[in-house]
Amino acid sequence: RVGRGTWEGPSVCLPAGAVYRGIPTRSGPPAGDAVLVGLAELIVELTRPVDVVCRLGGDEIAVLLPGCPTHVAKHRAEDLLTSVRAHEFRLEGEDVPLRVSISLGLAHAPTDADDLVSLYSAADGALYEAKRAGRGRVAVAAERAATDDDGSSPSGRARRRGRPVVGWRPR
């Protein structure tokens, strides 16, 4: 269980790039890896010493933000988005710097989940929502659930029945 007994539980931020996916086609796989490493270095530079930045595999990066409530995590994700937009990535042998576009999905425990698997899943769902909304955005799982008005999702059905969306309770 994560975030038990505190509203300042951890948040997870999942950044996903849009532009760097095409780099291996244009410049080869080493160039794509170089941009991914540069992106990870920039993220590490912008995070706190207690934050955990990791590569999950392929081009997936996750940032665990311990003790970071949703509103603070969202502000930090927006700062990250702005910093990545402004950063010029330099590839070896290329004269023109590369601009990278990312989208970010964000979730918080206990607001959106009560374990790490469901926390990751909520952040991943928010990431896909950010991509669907036009990329280059931050999407928050709790805001995504709040705008689900059709009532077809489990959270929409729970709201329709007057039940809480998140069933987390401290013990």
Q: What is the secondary structure topology, with strand pairs?
A:
Blueprint: E1 11-17, H1 23-27, H2 29-46, E2 52-57, E3 60-65, H3 70-86, E4 102-108, H4 116-132, E5 138-140, H5 141-146, H6 154-160
Parallel strand pairs: 4-5
Antiparallel strand pairs: 1-3, 1-4, 2-3
Describe the protein in words.
The protein is elongated. It has helices at residues 23-27, 29-46, 70-86, 116-132, 141-146, 154-160, and strands at residues 11-17, 52-57, 60-65, 102-108, 138-140. By secondary structure, it is of the alpha+beta class. It has a five-stranded mixed β-sheet. The chain contains six helices and five strands, in the order E-H-H-E-E-H-E-H-E-H-H.
Summarize the structure.
By secondary structure, the chain is an alpha+beta fold. The chain has six helices and five strands; from the N terminus they run βααββαβαβαα.
% residues in beta strands: 15-25%
Q: Give me the number of helical elements.
A: 6
Largest sheet: 5 strands, mixed
Count of β-strands: 5
Strand order of the largest sheet: 2-3-1-4-5
Shape by Cα distribution = elongated
Helix content: 40-55%
Order of helices and strands: EHHEEHEHEHH
Which spans have pLDDT < 50 for at least 5 consecutive residues? 151-171
Mean pLDDT: 78
Distance between the termini: 11 Å
> Over the alpha carbons, how many angstroms does the gyration radius reach?
17 Å
Q: Helix- and strand-based class?
A: alpha+beta
